[in-house]
Every structure is written in C-alpha cells, then in structure tokens.
Design goal:
Radius of gyration: 20 Å
Number of strands: 0
Distance between the termini: 17 Å
Structural class: mainly alpha
Number of domains: 1
Strand content: under 5%
C-alpha cells in the first residue's frame, strides 16, 4: 500500500527531526573532543589522577568515539533516505530486498529504514 500524503508529510518531519538530533549530537561530540584536545595534560584536575580514573576516562572516550562513528553512519542513512524521499519518491518506503512497501509503523520508528525487517 502506498503512503498517503499525510503519512509522507509525517515521515518527512520525522526524517528532518532525526537528522537534526544526530547533527546536534555530533556537534556536541566535536565540541567536547575539541575542548579535550585543547587542554594540557594535568589541566583536567588539580589532583593527581590515579590509574583507575585514567582507565575509566579512556573507556568513556572510546564509547564516545564509537557513538560518534555510529551516529555518522546513521546520518549518512538519513541523508540517503531524504534523497530518496525528495528525488526518487517511488523508492522511499520500499524494501530494498523484496520491493514491497515498508509498513508505516516501521518507517515511523526508523524513517530511514531500507528493509521491511
């Protein structure tokens, strides 16, 4: 079943909303990363940092880096979905595997979805 005009308008808003969310998260990551790089060693605290704290900080930075990589990939998927939505509307909302329409409920949750599953 093809998407109605109301559903398409809703999904367009969802794509733009999700894009703004990811762009904002990546900007926060970039600012935090830039602030960390600009600090001199020892600037983070007036107290001596023990090895456990350094390990925790390194693990937190690694998680942040992984999240940024995931969000960068998600942004690429959102941008690809927006391109399909605007330039090839007949392809948006169609499963890449089966060619069948992706259920609206799935698109509402993941508006950049490429498959039915």
């Amino acid at each position: 079943m093809a998407l109605t005009a109301t559903q398409r308008k809703h999904l367009e808003a969802r794509l733009l909303e999700e894009r703004a969310r990811v762009v904002d998260a990546l900007a926060r990551y970039s600012r935090a990363n830039r602030d960390t790089v600009q600090q001199e060693p020892g600037d983070r605290s007036a107290f001596h940092v023990n090895m456990a704290d350094q390990g925790t900080e390194a693990a937190d930075e690694e998680v942040d880096d992984l999240n940024a990589a995931r969000q960068t990939a998600e942004l690429a998927e959102i941008d690809a979905a927006l391109e399909r939505f605007y330039r090839r509307p007949e392809e948006y909302g169609r499963c890449d595997l089966s060619g069948q329409p992706i259920p609206f409920e799935r698109l509402d949750l993941v508006p950049w979805a490429r498959t039915c599953d």
